Amino acid sequence: MEAGNQTGILEFILLGFSEDPELQPFISGLFLSMFLITVLGNLLIILAICSDPHLHTPMYFFLSNLSLVDISFSSTIVPRMLVSIHTENKAISYMDCLTQVYFSMFFPILDTLLLTVMAYDRFVAICHPLHYMVIMNPPLCGLLVFVTWFIGVMTSLLHIFLMMHLRFCGDLKIPHFFCELTQILKLACSDTFLNRTLIYFMTGVLGVFPLVGILFSYSRIASSIRKMSSAGGRQKAFSTCGSHLSVVSLFYGTGVGVYFTSAVTHSPKKVSVASVMYTVVTPMLNPFIYSLRNKDVKGALGRLLSRVASCL
């Protein structure tokens, strides 16, 4: 059965977390709550940055892009899952599944690259403070964001192009709550060597190399902080880097956790539960990390909420 010629017929079945009807209301309520918190939290970050002139700097420009990506990533997965639970229809068409695969790869790639760009921004700010505004000028910041989006678009399209040439036959049940690429490749009855080779290659290029860049940036930052004679300067440097380091640790930690879970266990349910961490929990926690650890963001959020309250 050629998938590319039967996009209106071929359907996959997303098994989700549990087939127990008594658990469905709990799962639905939990994910709806996390999704609303994710959207509201990241939207507040974006509005606070846009409305406060003090936050119109490269660091917060990149942060607003990261918040937009987090909203989009959760919106790619959670609403479709909630609809499936409420309609009790687990089927998803070939094209809808293909679309979900595309965006479920696209947004994590953007996350990885934006976190790398933000690490470079902190490196320039702390190691070359006198030249910061010259180096991190608006055209360069715009170019860096454009490059991250371009790489994400092209890489995801390449995966989809290879996937469209696969044939699917037999049991088309996906033991996951969204269309995840590696799970779909297991259902293909044609050769997936090129698909898997591309996955390993891109994981190395877009996963390992950005992490190396982040670690290199922070090694230079740590060296510069140790040389600072002012305790206030060191504390300010740590405060500006602490939030970003926390988000990097959470993002890579959950990603590595999912990888090792899938490697050491043959239980699809455990892999699905582990995947919740990077698809839902991480985007939800990022706004809290930046708002609780950053005085500028807390101040901007306070002023924004005060203006909203005064208008009501």
TrEMBL record:
Q: Which coarse location class applies to the principal site listed for this UniProt protein? A: membrane
Tell me which CDD domains the record gives: 7tmA_OR7-like
Q: Could you cite one Gene Ontology molecular function of this protein? A: G protein-coupled receptor activity
InterPro entries named among the record's database cross-references: GPCR_Rhodpsn, GPCR_Rhodpsn_7TM, Olfact_rcpt
Keyword flag Ligase: no
Q: GO cellular-component terms in the record?
A: plasma membrane
Q: Which branch of life, at top level?
A: Eukaryota
Which UniProt keywords are listed? Cell membrane, G-protein coupled receptor, Membrane, Olfaction, Receptor, Sensory transduction, Transducer, Transmembrane, Transmembrane helix
Transmembrane feature ranges: 26-49, 61-82, 102-120, 140-162, 198-216, 237-260, 272-292
Q: Which GO terms describe its biological process?
A: regulation of DNA-templated transcription
Domain G-protein coupled receptors family 1 profile as annotated: residue spans: 41-290
How the protein sits in the membrane?
Multi-pass membrane protein
Per the record, the similarity remark reads:
Belongs to the G-protein coupled receptor 1 family.
Query: Which gene codes for it?
Result: OR7D2
**Biological role:** Putative odorant or sperm cell receptor.
Spell out the protein name for this chain: Olfactory receptor
